[in-house]
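Notes for week 9. Today we move from apo structures to complexes. The key idea is that a small molecule is not decoration. When we ask for a structure prediction with zinc ion present, the ligand SMILES becomes part of the input, just like the chain. The input block below holds both the sequence and the ligand string. Read it once before you look at the output, and try to guess where the molecule might sit.
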Amino acid sequence: MPERSSKRKAAADFIASIEQSGPAAKKAKAAPRRKAPQVDAGPWPEYFKGLEKLFKSLNTVIAFCHARKHLAVTFDTIRSSVEGLIKQPLDLARVAEIKAIIPDLVRFAYVEAESIRVHHDREVASSSYSRKSGRKGSPDFQLAPAEDPSRCEHVLVLDFVETNKNTQKIKEAAGKFSAPPALTQQQLMKLIEKRSQSFTRAVNELLAACAANGDDPVRLVQDAARAHVPVHPLKRTRPNDVQEEESANSGSNQPPKVVPDPQLRLPIDTIIKRLTEDEHYKGQIVKRREFQAKDAVWGRLNRTLSPAIKEALLSARKVEGFYSHQAAALNAIWDGKNVVVSTSTASGKSVIYQVPALCNLEEDKSSTAIFIYPTKALAQDQLTGLQQLLVRVHGLEGIMIAAYDGDTPKDRRQNIRENASIIFTNFDTLHASILPNEDTWRHFLRNLKMVVVDELHYYSGLMGTQVSFVARRLRRLCAAVGNRRCVFVSCSATINDPRGHMMNIFGVDDVEVITDDGAPTGHKDFLLWNPPFLDEMDPALGRSSSMQEACYLFRYLMKHGVRTILFCKIRRTCELVMKSIRHQLTAEGRQDILDRVSAYRGGYSVADRRRIEKDAFSGHLLGIIATNALELGVDIGTLDAVIMLGFPFGIASLRQQAGRAGRRARDSLAILVGDSLPIDQHYMLNPDEVFEKPTEPLIVDITNEGVLESHLQCAADELPIRLQDDGKYFGPCFEEVCKSRLICDKEGWYTTHPSYKPRPTMMVSLRGIQEDKYTVIDITTQDEQHGAARVLEEIELSRAIFETYEGGIFMHQGLTFLVREVDHDTRIAKIARADVNYYTKPRDFTDVDPSQTYRIREIKDSQQRSYFGRIVRKTVVFGFFKMRETTILDTVDLDSPPFIRSSTGFWIDVPRPTLNLLIDKDINPAEAIHAACHAVLSILPVFVLTALGDVGTECKAPQKEYMQKESQRKRPARLIFYDGTAASGICAKVYDRTHHVLAKALEILEHCGCEDGCPACIRSISCTEHNIVQNKIGAQIVLRGVLNLPIDADSIVPQYNRYHITVVEAEPVGARGIPLEPDED
Ligand SMILES: [Zn+2]
Ligand SMILES: [Zn+2]
């Protein structure tokens, strides 16, 4: 593919668009690809003069409409004005001809009518909905209910779309605050002029190309225009006529008009080839790696299976033999070993524990087993699978297997405890319901032959530490009832150190590790896709939206009948992508595809999730947009492609997600779409690391005394603890914690501390503190027809304050809802459907302050100290922005109660001389400190396994920092970082390496080529305040000051800080008696 300069792009696109319209047009192909920087084609034919006149009228009218209203401009809005200028009726076909000439610049399509309104809540504020409790300072959010949302009206939009320097600047200006952007007269004239030039240039290039080839330019344009005449979505006939489909499939790169049967789709290789020939392609693929198909490697069992089991496997699963890893695992289990199998997704891992469980039952009907899964959904899935197998095994007809978890009805529990041979459960149930009731489970535990933990890699970090103690409590109880033969079997994705992890989780040391994957795989393609620069000539403008690139790929693949899953990192992105896809497919008239796309994420009701899973599994869905909730193996059938929007939370996560696509006899595709984040761009520059870097180590920390203590309190309640007997289960801190936290009786038995009584497991939750939840209720239909309100979601308090505030836009399945009313006492948020083409972003400020110091350490070569301790965050949501993409359309004030949380974290005070230097040089200290904190946050993934939001900082809010009046709120000059979830332990790890981390952040900052900050250094998508209060030089000074590195004060050009100083020297937080740790890093 020859490189195209952006200047010639319009012509190239033009040619690309006419390539599809028939053999006659193809002749013009070669010419415009020559290097011809600026073409002057001489005088224009009349036809093009006429088009130019029309273009100029459109240009003027649209620009003025747009500048005033910030709305998408519809055909109807501009029609009369344009007709007034051109003095004749405005013809759709003529507009399509203009679009054919400059396809990238013009948007001409049908969209949902509701989706282009912005301010209608204002317009209908005085409608029949009256507020119940108007708070002072809060606006009126009442909105007439949407029409029946399924009956969307469509309007024809005619508008310019551009991603160039000019509009980018306008966008940035808009970001700088409050008022929506209003173009000045001068800016407007410039914009019009620029569009005019684009048109002229495109026509010149076209004319030159045609002259060179002897083509008729008028015919070419008119032919190409036919594809650009918009068709009303509801009038489209579908499936389209077969002829059109055939011609589309025969040679052109355009996706077929009818989605092919996914079974009969094109090979991935062909699809990639077409993708790179598509007009959208600008060299985005920075790496393509192919993984060849692999044949099965078979293994041999050391014992003969009974004919009954053999037949069942054959008839239920078509299993005729065992892959090498399956056979090796089965043999090891039969030898009485603990086994961990770490192989790729879909390599047939469940057989590994199902078969021995069935063999055990054949030998001894009283034998039992526990199968543990990270989620209830997965347990249900696996239960069904084993049931289907079990009914086919002659001789085991009476055997009962069952799920036993939080959803199991009370009246069924006793029956299961007494009669089930295998239970499907999770660690939470084991911890809270099975272990504390050892007496009722004694029979089951005594006969327990096998404990299976599937998806072992899931248990890492705090969760890993928690479950490791649960597993050890289980081993201790089994031993107490006289059962010492139980084996532990785990299956896991491909992980770094399966043996070590298995040993850590169970506290066992004889582990057989199986990693040789004998399962066959199809051919796999992996692409790294980096969004192109907005302007090749000016990389500083950044790259185009990764989300839009991912949406494009998603639509492209679905149109080719490729069943695709698109993974997003956070729920919000998931909804924004769904909204975009909804919009784009509607505009393209592809309701047929839209009907087969669904979003899937946490927070949805169980019923909704099950329905989506079922749709996916049955093959009805063509596309799923998911968060990593689907990363774990819930079976949703076979997918052919995975798109990852942004580098997932770690290499392990990336491989898991990529593994969701592909089946044995079929080729598959995984695409990583790079975000602008430093970590993403790092992998785009070093693509081989994506394939070669080992997965992150899984963390289990049995020396975490807090977690150890809570489990010892539980264990002592299950069975009093004896130091000499139980040390082997609980690690090196065991004795000390028993002695200091438990109660010892005269005979040396340790029992639970009274503060944990009567039920210690009630005080210990494996998944952290269970937060209060807000219930989100959809009242759309209730209002309309007195119908029933519907519970849409339940969301945790910590998210509710940012997602359900009155007037905010709440998203569900890519549909937008207006938050009508939030009651903080009953924790109910009422929302109603409202199709809007903006989203809202809360405006808040958070004070992050240390409240207690636990540890202090030196920072190498510096007088400053790094502190670790308790941190309190106080968040106030005082309003919100209405946004479209990155543009702020409006700002709204709110009055809501503060939200206070506490967790752990670390901080470093900025030395007085550094603060003075900033002030001397007229650099805003708040900007400097905020930027320095972001520089640190953005390099954390290099040091620890973190996800977005795992670690946060105090983000400086422009509304607070740039106030006209001097504020009473002064903040300490301090770099501060906290754990997003309490006890994740991440800040503690970073604190141990403070010097390294700060030095690395400074290095990145000083080597970044940008002028005043970019996503690769100080800008972060996790900044809750839009990265506005930032200063790159200031950040360098702060980091140098803290590290005590030389600063050449004379070389710093003084800046002009127009704002009040909001930062004062930090007061140390009481730390008397805490020993100073040396920096040995
Ligand atoms: Zn930079
Ligand atoms: Zn920030």
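The pocket of zinc ion (ligand 1) is lined by residues 1008, 1010, 1013-1014, 1016-1017 (CB under 6 Å).
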